[in-house]
Amino acid sequence: RKEVEQDPGPFNVPEGATVAFNCTYSNSASQSFFWYRQDCRKEPKLLMSVYSSGNEDGRFTAQLNRASQYISLLIRDSKLSDSATYLCVVSGGGYQKVTFGIGTKLQVIP
Amino acid sequence: DTGVSQNPRHKITKRGQNVTFRCDPISEHNRLYWYRQTLGQGPEFLTYFQNEAQLEKSRLLSDRFSAERPKGSFSTLEIQRTEQGDSAMYLCASSSRTGQQNEKLFFGSGTQLSVL
What we know:
The structure holds two protein chains of two kinds. Chain A is mostly beta strands. Helices cover 0% and strands 54% of the residues of chain A.
């Protein structure tokens, strides 16, 4: 089983739609969770951290379910500029490394 | 620019040659990571350092790959006897982690390696 699993998509959605991505992780001891955004041929950039209580940043909402070991990202009112690959990222505690999922590709269509 | 810097941006080499990439992390960051990414895949972990200590190296990494971080500052990644399968984007990231705080990675622009 992969350490971090994501549906690669692509998700093709019309402008203004709401879209949600899920990601599952295998290490129950994982402590930190993030969503990164990666544009084509660019480096990944931090979108938002994911906290146990859930957190929101404008049109973006992230949630963590430790019992089921998954995190989610919800994007409301999709914009053309949201088109990118969204990477699920998990970090263990102590000296454990940071692991990326394969990424979910989102294409927002006019 | 105080971000993560990688050099070169692009490297084209012939199969069998050795290549070396450099990464300069954000100055106050104690952790430095190397990842490899191919088209359609997420970044694949290669190795990482905390200060000058190499804490983990991916089991997928062959002996042809070696990384160093002398003095806990910049890092180099060397690939010996390159193969066509080594063609990828090599990403460096750094972070500042103390205690149990969330570890946020900041990436450089990467080095695109093409092995002919």
